[in-house]
Amino acid sequence: MRHFWTIASKEIRSYFNSPIAYVLIAVFLIINGYLFFSIVSFASRQSVQLLRFQGAAPQINLNELVFRPTFHNMSVVLLLIMPILTMRLFSEEKKTKTAELLLTSPLTISEIVLGKYLGALIIYLSMLGLTFYMPLLLSIYSQLNWGTLLSGYLGLFLLGSVFIAIGLFASSLTENQIIAALASFGLLLLIWLLGWAAATVEGTGMGEVLSYLSILDHFDGLLRGLVETRTVVYYLSLVALGLFLTHRVVESQRWK
Amino acid sequence: MIQVEHLTKQFGNRVAIQDLSFEVSKGEVLGFLGPNGAGKTTTMRILTGFMPATTGTARVAGYDVWESPQEVKRRIGYLPEQPPLYNDMTVTEYLKFVARIKGISPKQIKNSVQQVCEQCSLDEVRGRLIGNLSRGFRQRVGLAQALIHRPEVLILDEPTSGLDPKQIIEVRQLIKGLQGTHTVILSTHILPEVTAVCQRVVIINEGRVMAVDTQEGLSAKLRKSEKIGLKIKSPSPDCIEKLKAIPGVLNVFHETGLGQDGYPYVVESQLGQDIREELARYVVANDWGLLEMRPIAMTLEDVFLRLTAEELER
């Protein structure tokens, strides 16, 4: 298993050798920065109004007022850009025939799959880490509930982990990067929409199943500070499923 | 070193290779010859563990490629038809990465990269991006990649395709230098290449082995008569008839294409009978002006065409 770090570091290097990593991180930070800015200015106007009408400074919950909507917005941005991060992982190797090098080296398929997954995950973590200026900035002027905030970051991390696993799977299916990106976007959107389907059949057994499967319900729980075992298990099993399917696809392609 | 037994590979209904068997001994350079689409690449991919065979077994250095792929992969260096290069890496970065995944210990990586760069004359381009290299250098980086972990067995899929004549000679010399220390299988559809570097040839066509032998052995086996090429300065009009009259001569014909300095003829004689002395004496006695006389060995082209033609007749 020691080789999977070699693959991961190769992936990270190649993200930064091409403009992909820079452009992705820049787009992610600019859009989220703008959204954060508008949410904060809305929140500050609201708190001024509250101050004027009630005469005293109320306890303003910044986690609820700023970070919950900000992280929700971030998750939508992730839905759109994560397929771009993952599309090249296997497709490019197949297109340039470098897959032949990996598969004829003394590496196991698990090492290759895990290595690539970890490489993309580290890029995502650094993207996420750079957004940490938001809570740091606000903590200068006000009191934050760090527990709830970190639970929100855990939610973003788990959400991204699932997105990457699914994107990796989509990338293993084709040697065309655009198709890989579209397929993973489609799959992610489908999981996203499960939550809406759950809302329409609420109250029935089916509704309960769908709402457990909905990626958004779990995410919202984490944003409100609810770290539950079933939530973590839900995300980790999606990751495991994505990695398992990828492994199967890479293995089966040797037979064709 | 390599044993291939009754190997068959099917892609759906299409049979890529059928009942392929051959052996390669240690230190030998084996040419794998066949037209495009004969199944060369498929065979090599099975040997390297890239894809499994439908039936049959292949063993490399005593390990079955299906049962212990990791052991086999450690002992094989493989250069696919299109060298597997990462265009966004420099040559050194790339070779270091390959060294790592081939299982070279971290302490020896620098050394191995250094050695293989010297071996493949890559020193001048070590710091350059692979994507910016010329075709010849890319091919050599591909070769370096296959050699870096000093594998016992090298499998090279058309190593000289797309190179210019000078580069082809360089690559061939490199491969020749490996003879003895490495066991090499080399596929090609260029016949002179086999003559230049290989000790033995496996000829395959449409997925089946047609012949396994040395080049001399093959041409001896398939030859039906001895051939001698003659070049004569001023032959008399009836010289073909006169030459045919020499005992032992089966046939004489005018070779197509007029030489610059004389008329070329081919004289065929019975197998195992040397008529050169007789022939020379006769031409000189008639004062035709003997310019050249040489035995014509069967080229691999002839061998190959004869084999495929015989296949059709059957």
Question: What would the CATH topology of the largest domain in chain B be?
Answer: Rossmann fold
Strand neighbour order, sheet with most strands of chain B: 6-7-8-3-9-10
Order of helices and strands of chain B: EEEHEEHEHHHEHEHEEHEHEEHEH
Examine the secondary-structure arrangement and name the CATH architecture of the largest domain in chain B: 3-Layer(aba) Sandwich
Termini separation of chain A (Å)?
Answer: 26 Å
**Tally of structural domains of chain A:** 1
Globular, elongated, flat, extended or rod-shaped: what is the shape of chain A? globular
Q: Let me know the average pLDDT of chain A.
A: 90
- Strand-residue proportion of chain A: under 5%
* Strand percentage of chain B: 25-35%
Mean of pLDDT of chain B: 85
The tally of domains of chain B stands at: 2
Structural class of chain B: alpha/beta
Annotation field: number of helices of chain B: 11
Oligomer status:
heterodimer
Order of helices and strands of chain A: HHHHHHHHHHHH
Shape, per Cα inertia axes of chain B: elongated
Q: pLDDT under 50 segments of chain A (min length 5)?
A: none
Distance between the amino and carboxyl termini of chain B: 34 Å
Secondary structure: helix percent of chain B: 25-40%
Biggest interchain interface, per-side counts: A-B, 24 and 27 residues
